[in-house]
Amino acid sequence: MTVRYDGLLMFSGGLDSTVATHLLKSQGLSLLGIHFVLPFYSGLGGEHLKIYSFADTLDLPLRIIEEGNEFFEMVKSPEFGFGKNANPCLDCRIHRLKVARVIMEETSASFIATGEVVGQRPKSQRLSCLHLIDKRTGLEGRLLRPLSAQLLDPTVPEQKGMVDRSRLQGWTGRSRQPQLAYARTYGLPHTAPAGGCLLTMVTSAQRYLQLVERYDDFTLEDFRLIAYGRHFMLDDRCRLVIARDDPENNAIEKIASADDLLFDCADIPGPMGIGRGVFSDDAVMTAASMVARYCRARSLPEARVKVYRQSGEERIVTVAPADPVFCESCRI
Ligand code: SF4
Question: Is the same domain home to 237 and 127?
């Protein structure tokens, strides 16, 4: 049986969505939180315990959506372009609200609330952008922004008296002081959303843009890999990622497909490498020598590296650890 809610709330776990949750729940409204997990952290078998337990402290039932191909396609050609780095925030918000709209209909909810504040972000939270988002998502009159509601036209749930507009806020701009003061007054916990969006960060954004431009076969799985390891472009047909620690070894192993070449030092525990694309014999030896360079074999004259695919193929090659200057020359 589908549980019915008064409204949905886009819940990142940050300060704004936490305050939005409290503003609505303190009116006695029943809410379902919707939390999106970026593709970099999706499909790794994580149980998202931290965000579930945080939502639990606010008595907010939560549905988690792990992002995949639809998100990736949106990033490849955003209709409204990128923000400061490779973050297509406007397209992203529209995409996520469209996903949430389906859940709103499924749960017979009357509105979707967000923690957006008018003017907080230069591109996606300008008043004109908020109107555009309402239109493009087909949610006109159903998108409630409790933190800025008193500056905006009343939504349907406000007009119908379901939501008491006088108990919502009229905040605007980049300062978080009003939200912090509110959180202090009501003793609200808040946390930074896990992981953050890599697309807003200079290094990972540049890594993504360089890879997608150079490799025609760049896929969702490559996109997910940009969150992990050291990246090297070996030539126009193949690239290599070398983990930096154990958690990255695990993530890389989970992201690897049957076609990927995996590299692992045979005699000394160390970082794993994952090769994508078409590898000539020379490229295999180069990649193996680079993996040897980043493990404790780096000071040895040679090291044995296991080269294998998860489909079963396996061999051992013996290589001299690569020159660090060479490694840096193809690193991105
Ligand atoms: S910062 Fe990232 S996750 Fe957040 S709206 Fe922008 S693209 Fe989407």
Answer: no
